[in-house]
From TrEMBL:
Superkingdom in the source lineage: Bacteria
The species this protein was found in: Paeniroseomonas aquatica
Descriptive protein name: Prolyl oligopeptidase family serine peptidase
PANTHER family xref list: LYSOPHOSPHOLIPASE-LIKE PROTEIN 1 (PTHR10655:SF17), LYSOPHOSPHOLIPASE-RELATED (PTHR10655)
UniProt keyword terms in alphabetical order: Hydrolase
Domain Phospholipase/carboxylesterase/thioesterase: 16-204
């Protein structure tokens, strides 16, 4: 198992962190690509630590960057198997970070973009430890939706944000995810942004900050 690591930003307020937000990047990027979200959410979460781990594999679709699993074969079962394997290493990293910071599992939130969104949703709904406070998914998809009811371990609140002009991961992927999550009894909010392509805009960032603030306020021990 590859040991994950990546850039970190400590609590804006200083001192020991009270929450941990883990940022999961997309295909062909790395942790440095998403750690820039931390300063934008730190005003809402001054006592949160942020970490953006690099995915475990070199990207096999370009000359640089990392991937959580290969997308050369996009059959749903193959992608689900890739996410399942990657989730083992991700969960080990999450457990280690929480232990290092002396935080309970309920003090954790996951936020992912594109393939990182797929990982955040897959791992966040199946974490064998304490449930995360929230899962934020930007411009991604819900893998293994057909097995979710049987594999669901917890129901953290989920925020889905997706651009309606996304030509990389169509917005229909998040609309389908929203339906599947609601059917499984997972509390979900969705924000669909007219004209937005494959990216995160200010409205999506603000929605994420609001979700994180509410979730951590409601989470025991966070």
């Amino acid at each position: 198992m590859v040991l994950l690591d990546g850039p970190r930003i400590g609590p804006q307020a200083g001192g020991s962190p009270r929450q941990l937000v883990v940022l999961l990047h997309g295909l062909g990027a790395d942790g440095a690509d998403l750690i820039d979200l931390a300063p934008q959410w730190a005003a809402t979460l001054p006592h949160a630590a942020f970490v953006a781990p690099d995915a475990p594999e070199p990207c096999d679709m370009g000359p640089y960057g990392r991937q959580w699993f290969s997308l050369q074969d996009r059959r749903p079962a193959v992608m689900a198997a890739g996410a399942r394997l990657a989730a083992e290493g991700l969960n080990a990293f999450l457990d280690a970070e929480l232990a290092r910071l002396g935080l309970p599992g309920t003090a954790l939130a996951l936020a992912g973009f594109s393939q990182g969104c797929m990982m955040a949703l897959y791992a966040g709904l199946r974490r064998p430890a304490a449930p995360a406070a929230a899962v934020l998914g930007y411009s991604g998809a819900l893998l293994a939706a057909e097995s979710l009811a049987a594999e669901l371990v917890c129901r953290p609140p989920v925020l889905l944000v997706h651009g309606e002009a996304d030509d990389i991961v169509p917005v229909a992927a998040s609309r389908a995810a929203e339906q599947s999550l609601r059917a499984a009894g997972v509390p979900v909010e969705a924000l669909y942004r007219p004209g937005l392509a494959h990216g995160i805009d200010e409205a999506g960032l603000l929605a994420g900050a609001r979700m994180l603030g509410r979730a951590f306020a409601a989470a025991p021990g966070a």
